[in-house]
Amino acid sequence: MRDRVAEAVPALVEAAVAAPSMHNAQPWRFVHHTETGVLSLYGDPDRALPVGDPDYRGMHLGCAAALFNLRVAAAEAGWEAVTEMLPDRNDPWRLADVTLRESVAESPDRALAELSGAVKARRTSRFPFSDERIPPEIFDELCAAALLEGARLAVPSGWHAEALVDLVHDAELHESASDLMQAEIIAWTRMGRAGEGSAAEGVPSYAFGPRQHDVKVPVRDFGLPQDSRRRPTATFEEHPQLAVLGTESDRPADWLRAGQAMERVLLVATRDGLATSLMSQPLEWPELRSMARDPASRMGFVHMVFRLGYGPAAAATPRRAVADVLTVV
């Protein structure tokens, strides 16, 4: 049994690291304890974003998304992944322990296993989407996916949708006025210049997408002003289709639930043929984050804003090798 678990772990971690994270910082590491068979997920403080993510909420979301991918891969391989969140109160960086058990059924969770194809297909798209509206039944499915992981997904309309777009633009103004925030983004951005940094992390220039012709859609522009002339411009959709993900409270355990819900929503959307984009800009500023929620909603705290629609496939961003994120002890 231990040998089978040891053989399975690298493939599970490979699926896990396909998850999204802020600026593609990939703030996770895994430790496989061979004596017990436990696979532990840790947040990596060396990959923290102290300006954009000072409370490490974004790190928890990214690591939890990786955990969800691992659960999907385990189900596809016929394992039951028994997960314990925050197992060591003396080590806040130890975010989860996973124990693999052989399933007596064909698959321990068929709904999870069916998302395995979407793990590698999922992309963050910064390209224009069409004006085709998403059917209500697909939004219902995405809302159900969030609930399965203990979070809520809401589809804003009217004033709330307009307010979210305005908040993203307000966040961009905050960002442009902050030298520290600009420096942090630049540190995780690669323009393709020689010696610019690791090719296995960060946001490469080919993933920036075109510059917006009319700046109506809340897509983060990673390109620097001096490099803007190298990128084409495009007209984005007139009315972006947005969704917000949140929880009632705002503790690390909530962040881990929200991160798994975020990834489940993204994978279901990908499987259903949607293009997806994550927008955390207004949530990186406390004074703006509180304004992202609908005050009439039971959603106390917003953790992510999604832009969804139909559009071209985006290129995959790089990932670190399994050997760089997995330690066997």
Structural class category:
alpha/beta
* Strands, count: 13
Number of helices: 10
The first-to-last residue Cα distance is: 17 Å
Shape: globular
Which strand order does the major sheet show?
A: 3-4-2-1-13
**Helicity range:** 25-40%
Percent of residues in beta strands: 15-25%
What characterizes the major β-sheet?
Answer: 5 strands, mixed
Nearest-angstrom radius of gyration? 19 Å
Ranges where pLDDT stays below 50 over 5 or more residues in a row are: none
Average pLDDT taken over every residue: 91
H-E order? HEEHEEHHHEHHEEEEEHEHEHE
Structural features:
globular, 329 residues, alpha/beta, five-stranded mixed sheet
Protein architecture, described:
This protein has 329 residues and is of the alpha/beta class. Helix content is 35%, strand content 19%. It is built from ten helices and 13 strands. It has a five-stranded mixed sheet with strand order 3-4-2-1-13. The chain has a four-stranded antiparallel sheet with strand order 5-10-12-11, sandwiched between helices. Strands 6-7 form a two-stranded parallel sheet. Helix 1 packs across helix 2, helix 2 (57-76) crosses helix 8 (252-271) and helix 5 (136-148) runs antiparallel to helix 8 (252-271). The longest helix is centred in the N-terminal third of the chain and has 20 residues, at 57-76. It starts with a helix and ends with a strand. The mean pLDDT is 91.
